Structures are given as C-alpha cells and as structure tokens.
Amino acid sequence: MSPLDIPRRLLERLGAADSVVVFTGAGMSAESGVPTFRGAEGIWSRFKPEELATMSAFLRNPQLVWDWYAHRRTIIATVQPNEGHRAVADLEHLVPRVAVITQNIDNLHRRAGSTVVHELHGNIERNYCVKCGAPHEMGSERASPEVPRCAMCGGLVRPDVVWFGELLPEEDWEAAVRAASGADVCISVGTSGVVYPAASIPAIARKAGALHADVNPEPGPLSEAADVFIKGLAGAVLPVLVQHLEKLRSRPDIAVPGEGR
Ligand code: OAD
User: Fold this and answer.
1) What are residue 100's DSSP bridge partners?
2) 110-124, pLDDT tens digit by residue?
3) What's the gap in Å between 220 CA and the centre of ligand 1?
4) Which pTM value belongs to this model?
C-alpha cells in the first residue's frame, strides 16, 4: 500500500488523539489462517449456526458442538498473530489510551501484545459449567475427545463463547461502550458489521464525536457509514498506518503525508 492510500484527516486525528478504539472481527485474523464466517469460503457457508452455535444445539448434541469447538481450538492454537495484530498492539506506544474491542474468540490480540482487550463474544480458551456456572480449567482432558464434566457438580462443560440468542458478557460490553463513547478515533477492521449489538460500537463512537475509519478489502455496512474507508487487508493497511503515526508523533512539525480530505 502506498502512503497516499491513508487519508490525511485520519492521520491528523490519530496524531492528536488521546483515545483510540480498534473494533475487530474475523477478517483481522484471516491472514493468521483463522477462517472468517461469511462469504464464499466462510464457516457459515459450510455449517449451520443453529446446529453448532446455540445453547439448544449443545443440549441436543453436546458432543457434536464440543468437537466443533475442539477443532477450532486446535486451529487457533497452531496459528500466530499477524502483522495487523502487531500493529494494533504497537498503537499503545503512540496513543495514550487504546482499547481493542473484538468479536474474535481467538486471543490473538493479547498474544500480539495488546493489553486492553474487551472480548464481546468470549474466548475459546475458557470453559464453564452449564449447570453451576463454575469456570472449568482444562487439565488432562484437553487431549480427551469427551465433553468434560464440571469438577464441582458434574454438569456439562461448554466453551465460554457467546452463542446466538445469548447476551454479551456484561463487563466487557459495558467497558467497550465506555471506551467507544470516549474515543477520538474508532478504527473498525475485518468485520462485516452485521451481528448486533457488537456492530453498533462504531456508531456509538461516531455519535460521541469520534472519527470512524473502516479497514476491509470489501465495502459493507460499516464502510458505508464510516467517515473514512480504507480498502485493503488488515495486515497490509495497519502497519502502514502505524508507521505514519510513528513519524507524526515523533516529528509533529513535519507535513502529514496522505491523500486529501
Ligand atoms: P464475518 O465473517 O462476518 O466478516 C469478516 C469480514 O472480514 C468481511 O467483511 C471480510 O470482507 C473481511 N476480511 C476478510 N479478510 C480480511 C483481511 N485480511 N483484512 C481485513 N478484513 C478482511 O466476521 P465477523 O464480522 O467477525 O459471532 O462476524 C461477526 C460475528 O458473526 C462473529 O463474531 C461470530 C459470527 O457468527 C458469533 O459466533 C456469536
């Protein structure tokens, strides 16, 4: 990507920003090798969400749902954060307050070094008991194909991810709304922006006065609503954005590169 592709008004706002939120979806991890959900190659083109990602599906066939998450856990355990995740983590050295608000359950933002991460759809590395709610630490049964049972009450253990029809984790959601409401800039990356309430984060930020930039190889509802759309892959766009911001933060007197407003 050439420097000309990063709009000047985004760099200027980022250069002066105290607080930035980065709102991410599956496309953020696509270059790491984690499949996205929608589109021709997406998970939901091959599987039905109501058979794999709902509480009633789990109660109907716990083993099927557990096996599917075990498969995804294996994929996630073998992949690495990409250049995009690392650029998001680097933002913390350039902006006083950075919060990552993610729909991803893959833990890759934390593994890349981001320290403030609000996970709106849970985390595949955590599990809890459907009966008593106790968190479940995976020990030796990590290698076992059976659905684990709770050590406290014997109930079935499920992944700590948000399924369709479930509420978002309250603490993460409230922290995300607070961060979005106080942000100077919101950068959405790699999300189709169709799953609510998560998809309302950029609108919350815009309403509170933030400049909203969307990064995605394809236009969609978020890019249409955004102040700035950067068409491209997360792993290509975000490192360039950070490089320009580094220059700007170290030499605020120099001219900001980039195309016109
Ligand atoms: P989607 O699969 O709906 O959208 C992925 C987006 O990433 C699309 O807009 C792609 O164009 C874009 N994309 C693909 N590769 C990219 C790349 N390298 N860089 C940047 N963008 C790229 O995934 P989400 O929007 O995350 O929820 O989906 C939202 C929720 O729907 C998920 O959290 C999940 C799913 O059902 C639950 O499981 C509750």
Assistant:
1) 22, 117
2) 999 999 999 999 999
3) 11
4) 0.94
